[in-house]
Amino acid sequence: MDNATAVRNATGSATAVRPGEAPAVHAAEIEETDGFHLVIDALKLNGIDTIFAVPGIPITDLARKAQAAGIRVISFRHEQSAGYAASIAGFLTQKPGVCLTVSAPGFLNGLTALANATTNCFPMIQISGSSEREVIDLQQGDYEEMDQLAIAKPLAKAAFRVLHAEDIGVGIARAIRAAVSGRPGGVYLDLPAKLFPQVMDAATGASTLIKVVDPAPRQIPSREAVDRALALLKGAKKPLIILGKGAAYAQEDAAIRALVEKTGIPYLPMSMAKGLLPDTHEQSAAAARSFVLPEADVVVLIGARLNWLLSHGKGKTWGGKSPTAWGGQRYIQIDISPQEADSNVRIDAPVIGDIGSCVSALLAGVGASWPKPPAEWLGAIAERRNRNVAKMAETLAKNPTPMNFHSALNVVRDIVKANPDAYFVNEGANALDFTRSIVDMVKPRKRLDVGTWGVMGIGMGFSIAAAVVGGQQVIAVEGDSAFGFSGMEVETICRYNLPVCVVILNNNGVYRGNEVNPTGGADPHPLGFVKAASYEKLMEAFGGVGVRVTTPAELRAAMDEALRSKRPTLVNALIDEGAGTESGRISNLNPVSKKKS
Ligand code: OXT
Ligand code: ADP
Ligand code: MG
User: Fold this and answer.
1) 398-589, CATH topology level
2) According to the model, what pLDDT value does residue 368 have?
3) 333 with 349: CB under 8 angstroms?
4) What is the predicted pLDDT for the residue at 593?
């Protein structure tokens, strides 16, 4: 439209205006915007290009218009999966992953994922439509009535509500900052139905939007903290570095690797930090875990909390004389949260700041003359590691009938090794724990799993997000129970034609499938499922490829083909139903009654 400006009226039709010519202004022809468009514009302005959603009242049109405006809207079958997808997208990209839910039940379905994001320090924003404030507050029984803000607050890092269209820019800016600054977490943003159709003139609306500057500011550690840590580390005889998923999140891979290699200190990756340095690295102590933890004298925690996954720094795992006794280790803890130090045991040298700044500051103090750890310490670890690796190799070489976790995972291990760029999603109990130690990761942020809560149900949401934001093949190794929590999302995988290969290690139940109802009654045992269930047909139902396998050779052929074709594939690997143990490797956390029946 030459020399002319389009003026959009409230119905969306445009009329041409010549320069110097005043438009015939009817009220209806002033360029207008509304709550829907302001939300979308605010997200786009801040680089949010994907939304994970389940549409419905009152956010149906928001999803529709977001897609029309060029945002990728991935529409799920259940909000929990959409939420998990958003949270892991946040972990992978350092941008808050956005999950869009409807009021009350949809909001609650998504809330588990929001709480999980907060617990795991993943940046995420759950945007939920909600019902009329006035009706909710008087408890008059509105459609899907619920005081969502109050319910979300204790489970989120922050929670906000926007009532007026002119506050949308601020609301989204606050949500973004809260999600990614400091320790990342889940943020709830409540948008009542009445907000969306609120109209204001477009120029004023645009002026209310905020492009967030420096959303996750660097936090530089103090000189004293760095010197204190270096002094402690220098005196160590048996130093150990533990890398957690905070280290993976930070995307400071080169600096972390340089610190590990320049100091020569052995390191232990927590589950989602596997691959930060390749698992095959000679300084990896992963295969000597139960040896290094109690033996180490100075432990450097980088983006890892001393929570249950590290036995709270106490007890037998750490060489403590009783289950609650401290093992005597001294700790350096690098973390962005100043409150993390001393949460379980004394931290002698907290280094508070972002991992990039902290690791770089330590590196600057590690000169060429830095003493390598004593040879006896490195030798003892190598010996233990080699012994465990050899034992594992022996087990993996076996080919029992029926196939078991090890013979199946031996195949997965080879395929992951040959496809290092593939994302690797993993959940279950035995299906998780065996996989973690058998399948090596060689690249950072590729292994995505149940995290801090050990939560089942992340599988398909994580897979979808990894394929969407990572643009790579995904392999998901799932326990049959774990898969059931989000299995319907295979339709989503097929609908978006994502390169996801789901492998179910199917042992007919939770932990194993061979327990029977002790009463002899008709009801099945609470841990057992339908025997040899045909999960592959679920994928076939939506146009994907389903394969049922009973041998490692068949599993290999099916996975090879899945990765070659990049088609959505579900491989139902039937394994020995008696192979699993109670709760996998965490049986110690499972109280068991001593009383007979
Ligand atoms: O040093 P040692 O000798 O000890 O050996 C260690 C390493 O040195 C060695 N290793 C190696 N050896 C050789 N080579 C290599 N490369 C190597 N690497 C390591 O191996 C061992 C083990 O090493 P690891 O793993 O590092 O060490 P360890 O001691 O295991 O570490 C401790 C932990 C705590 C860090 C680790 O165990 C861990 O990360 N655990 C996470 C456990 C977890 O989160 N589990 C999930 C929850 S279980 C339960 O809650 C389940 N539920 C309930 C439920 C849940 N969770 N959620 C919801 C929403 N509802 C309900 C349910 C329903 S699981 C579950 C379903 C289960 O059934 P499925 O069918 O899905 O699964 P199956 O069990 O397969 O049937
Ligand atoms: P893991 O389960 O792998 O041990 P956790 O989730 O327990 O890891 O710990 C992650 C830690 O990393 C949290 O304490 C969090 O505050 C911290 N963290 C996250 N991002 C950063 C960052 N950019 N810089 C410093 N610390 C971070
Ligand atoms: Mg199982």
Assistant:
1) Rossmann fold (3.40.50)
2) 84
3) yes
4) 86
Counting Cα atoms < 13 Å in the Cβ hemisphere of 122 gives 33
Residue nearest to atom 76 of ligand 1 (CA): 511
- HSE-up (13 A, CA, CB side) for residue 529: 19
Amino acid making up residue 352: I
Residue ranges with strand state E in 23-85: 32-34, 50-53, 72-75
Please report how the helices 253-263 and 355-365 are oriented relative to each other, as an axis angle in degrees rounded to 10. Answer: 30
Cβ–Cβ under 8 Å, residues 242 and 276:
no
More confident residue, 287 or 16: 287
Residue 301 Cα to ligand 2 middle (Å): 9
Q: What pTM was computed for the model? A: 0.95
Interval 271-315: pLDDT, tens:
999 999 999 999 999 999 999 999 999 999 999 999 999 999 999
Any idea which residue has 């009532």 for tokens?
A: 163
- 405-418 and 552-565 helices cross at what angle (nearest 10)? 30
- The counts of H helices and E strands in the chain are 21, 21
Give the chain's mean pLDDT: 95
Tell me how far the alpha carbon of residue 594 lies from the centroid of ligand 1, in angstroms. Answer: 24
Q: Are 332 and 229 in contact (CB under 8 A)?
A: yes
Q: How far is the CA of 313 from the centre of ligand 2 (A)?
A: 16
What is the residue whose two structure tokens read 């579900």? 570
- Count CA atoms closer than 13 A to 591's CA, side-chain side: 2
Spatial contact of 173 and 125, defined as CB atoms under 8 Å apart: no
Q: Whose CA is nearest to atom 16 of ligand 2?
A: 183
Topology of 31-207 in CATH? Answer: Rossmann fold (3.40.50)
Q: Where in the chain is the domain with CATH 3.40.50.970?
A: 31-207, 398-589
Average pLDDT over residues 344-353: 98
Cβ neighbors of 393 (< 8 A, separation 6 or more) are none
The H or E element that residue 447 is part of is strand 447-449
Q: Could you tell me where in the chain the CATH 3.40.50.1220 domains are found? A: 223-383
Q: Is 436 in the pocket of ligand 1 (CB under 6 A)?
A: yes
- For the Cβ of 289 lying below 6 angstroms from any atom of ligand 1, the answer is yes
**Residue 162: pLDDT band by 50, 70, 90 thresholds?**
very high
Given CATH 2.40.160.20, say whether it is the number of domain 223-383. Answer: no
CA of 516 to the centre of ligand 1 (A): 24
* The one-letter amino acid at 156: A
Predicted local distance difference test score (pLDDT) of residue 407: 98
- Angle (CA) 293-307-427 rounded to 5° is 95
Give the length of the chain: 597
Residue 494 has pLDDT above 70, yes or no: yes
Give the position, in ligand 2's atom list, of the atom nearest the Cα of 452.
Answer: 2
Residue 427 · residue 478 · CB < 8 Å: yes
More confident residue, 3 or 404: 404
pLDDT of 246 strictly over 90: yes
CA distances from 587 to 182, 479, 552, 591 (A): 35, 17, 28, 8
* Distances in whole angstroms, Cα of residue 186 to Cα of each of 98, 99, 465: 10, 10, 16
**Nearest ligand to the C-alpha atom of residue 272:** 2
Rounded Cα distance, 92 and 122, in Å: 9
Neighbours of 360 (CB within 10 A): 18
Dihedral (CA of 392, 397, 403, 408) sign: positive
- Which ligand has the minimum distance to the alpha carbon of residue 448? 2
